[in-house]
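Quick one, tokens below. Sequence please?
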């Protein structure tokens, strides 16, 4: 029998193009985003539920919601 495959949606940040404005961090309902050393947004993959609010808020459009297998 095949192993059970679960899929989840998660946010990924293109860190090179992030301007560290913090808009995503403020809007995240799960407090899953922090600004790493004032340089770029980092998403906690365990906390993120993939709702997409951060991606809609990001002025630089550097957040992508992807489906991942867990
Ligand atoms: S997708 Fe939702 S839960 Fe995940 S980091 Fe963005 S706002 Fe937070
Ligand atoms: S909203 Fe976009 S540009 Fe601003 S910190 Fe988050 S990922 Fe970076």
């Amino acid at each position: 029998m095949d192993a059970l495959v679960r899929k989840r949606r998660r946010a990924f940040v293109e860190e090179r193009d992030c301007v560290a404005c913090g808009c995503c961090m403020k809007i995240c309902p799960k407090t899953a985003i922090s600004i790493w050393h004032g340089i770029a947004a980092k998403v906690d993959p365990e906390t993120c539920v993939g709702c997409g609010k951060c991606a809609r808020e990001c002025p630089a459009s550097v957040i992508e919601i992807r489906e991942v297998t867990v």
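The chain has a mean pLDDT of 95. The radius of gyration is 13 Å.
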